[in-house]
């Protein structure tokens, strides 16, 4: 139904105020609102009806309102007479004529519902076609193979039903979400990564070259994904169908993530087998090689991150970057087997962000060395935490920051802490516990005594005994630094699997 046809219905008593050049615009639905910035809730072809409660009074603001309504493709604007709308300015009337947006008066007391019913009855054939198209969308998800998750299997149907170019994209990078999908055009990627832009019916609109408009549609329950839709005709895609298409994309992504979890469990069992050096080690190493994780070209990474969400989505990031991996938990922390490629390590550290810490082993080289590589990765992670570095490779740290490998760490512990460790072992003593508590509580006698539930004098005696055994003065900065460094090395060694 066009605006002209709607006005010709006698009982609606609609009257034209301005925008006569747009009388042949199609009306596909109605929307009643008195909210500010109403264009955010409207879409192409809709008749906006309002009582004018939030209608701007200034000429510039009234013109801006029409400009925004034109940007989202509103079919017409209808205002209730004798209600709350401020006087319409001459600039507003001129803008309506220039933009071709009919502005109608709804005579009091004509109910808005009567106009809505009339429009609804006129679009029943289109509604039937929409239902048929919606059914095709959901049929596509039913036919999706559950195990082949590296590309979108519903995208072709989305393109056909919407009559538009459609891409499932990452909301942050603007790149294709599925690892084997074709990449969207560069200007689409830039638009997704760009400013928010104009909002319409919950979607974001961005101008493209050639007068085309990109519709960026959020995917329900999948905050990291959006649909990028560009109509192949002058008619924008149906807003309701866009929402159904986004729901179908959400279902397919949920299936993909579920299958990814299944893969992760299976591959994690292989990782656990080779890292524990058990009887299944050789067979598990062979299966990892078939997944693209040949020990000759792989390494072990131990990771930590304060941002739990980044840890949770780490497998998705690796999958989307086409990086084979096997991940398991050791001492509550993720440990991964990865290809020894700069790209793989860059994706890993980027996925963890600034709050992440990564320890990398030397190349595994042979299947019998996985367990040792895990120990190297754990040691490097400890060094990363101590130094504040994002990533540390085993054996690469400067000696100024401590020992560079496990052999150096053991030598440092023996040299600086050996007499105390042997004293405790021979006499079932607690000197090491007292030393750690003393340094943890900033060398406060009283706080250390309270923490250990000892008399202050007992703590004083034990610290003097420790200084004598180690030939150090814990009030001297140099001695204190070396003892502290040895304690950190001991903790890193103790934390290794």
Q: What's the pLDDT, averaged over the residues? A: 90
How are the strands of the biggest sheet laid out side by side? 1-5-4-3-2
Portion of residues in beta strands equals 15-25%
Sheet having the most strands: 5 strands, mixed
Approximate shape? elongated
| Assembly classification | single chain
Report the total helices: 18
Low-confidence region ranges: none
Rg estimate, integer Å: 34 Å
- Distance between the amino and carboxyl termini: 73 Å
What structural category arises from helix and sheet content?
A: alpha/beta
**Based on DSSP secondary structure assignment, what is the total number of beta strands?**
15
Brief summary of the model shown:
The protein is of the alpha/beta class. It has helices at 3-7, 59-71, 90-99, 112-122, 124-142, 155-162, 186-193, 239-275, 281-290, 308-312, 314-320, 342-352, 370-387, 406-427, 431-440, 445-452, 456-470, 477-494; strands at residues 14-18, 29-32, 46-50, 76-80, 103-106, 164-170, 198-200, 203-207, 213-218, 225-231, 298-305, 326-330, 333-339, 356-360, 391-393. Helix content is 47%, strand content 16%.
């Amino acid at each position: 139904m066009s605006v002209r046809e709607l006005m010709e219905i006698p009982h609606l008593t609609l009257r034209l105020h301005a925008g006569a050049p747009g009388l042949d615009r199609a009306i596909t639905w109605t929307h009643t609102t008195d909210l500010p910035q109403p264009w955010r809730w409207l879409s192409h072809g809709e008749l906006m009806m309002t009582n004018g409660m939030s209608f701007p009074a200034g000429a510039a603001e009234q013109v801006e309102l029409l400009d925004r309504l034109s940007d989202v493709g509103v079919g017409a604007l209808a205002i209730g007479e004798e209600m709350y709308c401020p006087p319409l300015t001459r600039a507003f009337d001129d803008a309506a004529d220039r933009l071709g947006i009919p502005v109608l008066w709804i005579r009091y007391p004509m109910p808005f519902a009567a106009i809505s019913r009339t429009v609804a009855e006129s679009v029943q054939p289109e509604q039937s076609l929409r239902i048929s198209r919606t059914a095709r969308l959901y049929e596509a998800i039913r036919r999706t193979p559950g195990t082949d998750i590296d590309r979108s299997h519903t995208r072709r149907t989305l393109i056909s039903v919407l009559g538009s170019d459609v891409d499932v994209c990452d909301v942050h990078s603007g790149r294709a979400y599925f690892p084997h999908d074709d990449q969207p055009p560069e200007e689409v990627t830039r638009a997704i990564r760009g400013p928010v832009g104009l909002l319409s019916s919950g979607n974001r609109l961005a101008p493209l070259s050639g007068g085309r408009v990109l519709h960026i549609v959020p995917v329900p329950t999948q905050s990291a994904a959006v649909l990028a839709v560009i109509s192949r005709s002058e008619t924008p895609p149906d807003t309701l169908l866009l929402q159904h298409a986004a729901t179908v994309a959400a279902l397919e992504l949920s299936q993909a993530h579920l299958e990814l979890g299944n893969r992760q469990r299976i591959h994690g069992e292989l990782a656990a087998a080779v890292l524990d050096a058990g009887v299944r080690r050789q067979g598990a190493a062979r299966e990892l090689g078939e997944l693209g994780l040949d020990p000759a070209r792989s390494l072990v990474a131990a990771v930590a991150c304060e941002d739990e969400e980044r840890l949770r989505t780490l497998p998705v990031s690796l999958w989307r970057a086409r990086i084979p991996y096997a991940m398991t938990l050791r001492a509550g922390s993720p440990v991964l087997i990865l290809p020894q490629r700069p790209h793989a390590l860059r994706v890993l550290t980027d996925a963890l962000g600034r709050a992440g810490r990564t320890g990398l082993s030397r190349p595994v080289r042979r299947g019998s060395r996985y367990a040792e590589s895990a120990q190297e990765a754990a040691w490097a992670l400890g060094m990363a935490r101590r130094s504040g570095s994002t990533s540390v490779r085993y054996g690469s740290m400067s000696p100024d920051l401590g020992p560079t490998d496990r052999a150096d760490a053991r030598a440092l512990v023996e040299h600086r802490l050996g007499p105390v460790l042997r004293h405790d072992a021979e006499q079932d003593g607690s000197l090491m516990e007292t030393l750690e508590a003393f340094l943890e509580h900033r060398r406060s006698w009283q706080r250390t005594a309270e923490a250990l539930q000892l008399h202050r004098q007992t703590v004083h005696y034990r610290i003097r005994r420790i200084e004598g055994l180690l030939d150090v003065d814990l009030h001297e900065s140099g001695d204190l630094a070396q003892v502290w460094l040895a304690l950190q090395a001991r903790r890193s060694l103790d934390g290794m699997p």
